[in-house]
């Protein structure tokens, strides 16, 4: 051990050594993208073992393999899934492709899982086809109300994009559809002026998007909600699992719809008489399967009971060229470089935990089960969680989503990192990013977004209330209107995709590695936790403004039902005062005395936890963060004050308006109380 | 501030000054028992103000009055409640008394609330009367199954005792009764050879037991479950409140049943044709009412963010001679004596919080709302909670209910306190207690029981997982078979009751004050928290044994449904090893270094928290302690592994045996996981 105050001068030095050391991403990325490694398969276990072995060699104090037995879903190998057009005699006159054309260089690879929708029900429904655009609530409602088309008993065809595919399926089920076909529309999956893979990075017509379609709302393994899926754990009967889709779902590419790239597709709702009849043939099986997380640790020197976590998934639908291996390579490289520091005698103030999660693609099972397994310790000890999914999804600039208290650290850090862009020698990542994506008119700084869901930070942030961040390289969202990145979840996510198109110098991945590594380093090493509670106060003020604006779209009802946001604004005001006073007290803190430092650090650490409501959000017991959660209508979109947001969203669809507004008032009260209580945790503790 | 290691030698000295100083209980008890001070009344607010003022004078750093607006229940002053016997023409030929005869010396006192059942529904049901003994599940089942008597549409008459009165009412509602009469049977409320008050401490025939009959299961204010009942808090519609009784309920004394004391009463089930017809006339109102907690603090010198809480209620049904003022006087006296220490320059290592709770009698509202209001801070910072309800309920010996980790402290402390019994000069409280109530054949030590519920520790222990204890003087439960103490919740709970009968020298109350004060002192002052995790391990082993024995009453079903306790025993084994290793590491801890001391103290503090399951027990979201909670069938009885216990209890009443055993298995799995996870928190943190 070492003295409490010693680390201030030396930690800056070590950070300066750490950041440039991240220079081996190219071979690491190559190494882990050669073979398909779907969750629950032999190859994904082999990669886990290899990673664990190498982490130990890099110098971590401990590495363990942590298995869970969770419900996964695989196509039936002897009965492939496909969709047919059937004629009036019931004969299949056209069948969709059974697999994607394998990219060059991978022809001999086995175990490429064909495109499918994980957790689809089995079945062979047959019927008329109805096109429902993106399958959003408003799409179904437009279809029903404006066009008088009822989808009950129909098969719906929905294009990917805008919202999480699981929400599309839920909406289809609620509307009474008996099957769902998901497809990639070139309008959403081809960038303008770009060739299809392998000549460019657009989605070829034979490619399709795999993905799970289950709205787990944070439950992790659906058979063991709230508890880790260990060997002895009691498992619910499959029939009792809430939210498991009960209709067949299947994804196809645009070739199977005979649409060529870069051409306008079906306009809204024209496909009703697309074909005489459609039959889906789906034989996908749910099965309890063993998965493996790899957990490595560097023991903290002074505060071993404070945890800083870097976690990202390892499982991929196929090769995972972008998702997740561009991120997993970054984790591996960060472990290697932290190992170099350890060899030089460095040891962080706090404990660092590195995680290679399994089964993210099936619904965040690996990370969620581990969070459930370690909930007590994480709740008491975790300082921050940095997520490491795909490190790149575009070639434009940095993208950061994080909790408000990390804004300042992200800015400080990116000023110490070099821009990876050509022609920007001597320019910081901060400047490069700022130039490309300024926040808003009223805030001159690079844009930082709210965390939504759809990756492994979910259980740590939304369920447990641990300050969290994610960072990646992204596209220009002003000009590049396609969804996600075009080859997302297809077989064309290869090493070459990154090496030839996205990041030929691997400098972008390196910049992302430096951001992630720097966050972990500073959270683990700073004597005072680098969390800015004033930023949280500012953000709460903006969120309160924006939710009241949403409500004010109904001025008459606001008056009629006496809906007031006063308590929320008053709570935000109290919080802001407490935050400002807290930072003032920090200025006069005696940093030589370890106990007062620990006391204030604990207040910083537990601030995010104070936004957790053990009651959960309405109907979603595992989404417990009152400030941030995805809306119930789109898992990907992070909303602020999600309880109020959802209650307002439901106003227009509710049969009982008075009751719907009562729910809005209830949610405002909960938000006001939570913000007030969180502010109280920042006041002097006695 | 002072140095970390300084306090070891001086703290013993201060404890030796503290304990003998508790010598003003007699005047304090007299002062606060002169007037009725029901929750929500003017007089109870006046006492609160007086207490707050005096606490400040005693020397506390801060005192605040904390109001909440909660649902309470009062008789209608203009329409008294009573029960009639009606003849065949519907005329009331006999009416029960409207009030108890006022005891001598209190004739001029106003605002004595007559006996009533708080939260009774209003109504005037009329019908046949059926006697259902104590109203337990087994009593109703015997009536129905063995005697073929259906109580649907009947008024049931149930004697007080054995289980919480709210559970009796729930059972009656489930059985279809349309009204409940509760009465005090001399067999349960008169001690042998004792005269009735004022000549002795037995219940007179004109006395009756007030009490709330609402099974809140830890929710506190029923209109704001999970949140503090502040001004701005959203309140549920009364109609939506789960568990509020929907039938009239009323208590009567034995004079109204024409039974004289010390004589055998109705034998079981003979009262069916007791009278032609009975009519209940109940006009009790539920109303949202302001209540007031008084919260005082002594700021901790070294760890201001660690809280030790002494809390007890102030509200009384009438004078509160025993319940709660025998305990509230103790709290007041402890504040006074801690004030004396402060004047001598002492300041505890940790923060001490003193609480005078309101509205305990209506269902723990004051303490629960404050726990909800401060949940985040309590979760992170509370070291222990000592409850201070009635300090005496008998004249025999000490009674302690506490969490296992406090057993050792209780024993150590009672060895430093003198026995209050005559003829035991020079004998310690420990010896006196040990002699009168040895634990069991296999454990030679004074008996300590599990915490149940029915007093203000509930939210702190069962919902939040804060190590908790209560101590009081009690009767000889081997020989004194009456329920509670005879005049419980009657107007006869006066100062004189204590001064003449229970504790004429006030030495028993003083011994209880010393136990409560000593617990607070040691929890607040010891450098290492005085919590013994080995004791927790031992207790878990015993609880596991006893729950498996309960299950083994069904050996064939255990086999048929493959019910195994292996995972639970394995978890208890792991926990025991972790506990032993933890205490071994404590031996070698460098106590001069504040950080490792804090780290291990945090592990000790958070151990109790580790038994909290945010999912709650089945159907009882606010009972979240997996090891300790009351059974669903009797709020007063603390059960270990309550989830398993209730699941086993339900086996015999379940229509679907297979499903009932599935629930047993589910609960075993949860218990095993929780014990395992709690054990993990004791291992080295990195």
UniProtKB/TrEMBL annotation, chains A, B:
Give the Gene3D superfamilies listed for this entry.
3.50.30.30, Transferrin receptor-like, dimerisation domain, Zn peptidases
Q: Where is the Transferrin receptor-like dimerisation domain?
A: 563-682
Q: Does the keyword Phosphoprotein apply?
A: yes
Which reaction(s) does the protein catalyse, per the Swiss-Prot or TrEMBL entry?
Release of an unsubstituted, C-terminal glutamyl residue, typically from Ac-Asp-Glu or folylpoly-gamma-glutamates
Query: What's a GO cellular component annotated to this UniProt protein?
Result: plasma membrane
Keyword Electron transport on entry: no
The record's subunit annotation is:
Homodimer.
What protein is this chain from? Glutamate carboxypeptidase 2
Lineage, opening ranks: Eukaryota, Metazoa, Chordata, Craniata, Vertebrata
